[in-house]
Amino acid sequence: MATMKVRKAVFPAAGMGTRFLPATKVTPKEMLTLVDKPLIQYGVEEAVAAGCEEIILVTSRGKSIMEDHFDKSAELEASLEAKGKTALLEIARAVSKLAKINSTRQAEALGLGHAVLQAKSLVGNEPFAVILPDDIVDAQVPCMKQMVEAFNETQASILGSEIVEGDAISAYGCLACTPDPKNPKLLAVSDMVEKPKPGTQPSQNAIIGRYILTPRIFDMLETITPGAGGELQLTDGIKALMQYEKVYGFTYEGKRHDAGDKLGFLKATVEFALKNEQLGDKFRAWLKEFPL
Ligand code: UTP
Questions:
Q1: CA–CA separation, 130 vs 145, rounded Å?
Q2: Mutate which of 19, 25, 60, 265 for ligand 1 pocket (most atoms within 8 A of beta carbon)
Q3: 171 in contact with ligand 1, CB cutoff 6 A
Q4: Where do the structural domains in the chain lie, given as residue ranges?
Q5: What would the pLDDT profile of 170-209 be if each residue is shown by its tens digit?
Q6: Are 235 and 161 within 8 A, CB to CB?
Q7: Average pLDDT over the chain, rounded to an integer
Q8: 18-289, what's its fold?
């Protein structure tokens, strides 16, 4: 069989972002700015760095601003060009040249599994990446690139995973898994539980917002029924997929920020600001003087 390549990345971005109200009443959560870029741009850049050529945004009513962000802004470019602001012009242009951007809609926020299912016809019959834009992963080798490299070996679905200590695991999908003897970063998954009750978790291996899935997942998502929280859960679809195919967890190298949560977003802002080439030194100096 020919080797399968990951060419497309799906971005579920149709949720209501209620944890971030009132900021997200009108502005999509995925467009909140981390230092100088909206969250979704970090994810799209990660997908591109992993070799994805096509981005599929799953949006909803009132969220078309995301498509505009990745579109060419002729007016802005003409104005910057006329004023000779070439550095800013390059920044504006680069965003619209990142990748081919497609979008589809999820009419109602019925869950992550349902959001991914909306991308079925745009993905077609090939493996694809899924990136949750509010999980920001800071890594030397972009997280999805690490996962694509693992996929090129396994040719099987791969779920980004990290250790979450104690009862905090109850906020995540959780894996029952054993490390692959040849590559301990790869975890052979035997079961998974969405948001396990404290004390019932099969392991401390949480699923994070990075997935590579084979196209059979769409058949599974079409048959599952609402699970935890009354939503169509992606993990339930993956669990069904496991009856037919191998599924792996993958312990990525890097640090994840839950930027969908106010505190996580603040922490990410400080860390990214400190690392920023233009702002880092000044921000650090200011922080040192700040009366805590
Ligand atoms: P979250 O649960 O973090 O997003 O889903 P949310 O529902 O928008 O946020 P809260 O909990 O109300 O604050 C992770 C990602 O999945 C998308 C979201 O847009 C987010 O990027 N999502 C979630 C969908 O696209 N559709 C859904 O039905 C649910």
A1: 12
A2: 19
A3: no
A4: 18-289
A5: 999 999 999 999 999 999 999 999 899 999 999 999 999 9
A6: no
A7: 96
A8: Spore Coat Polysaccharide Biosynthesis Protein SpsA; Chain A (3.90.550)
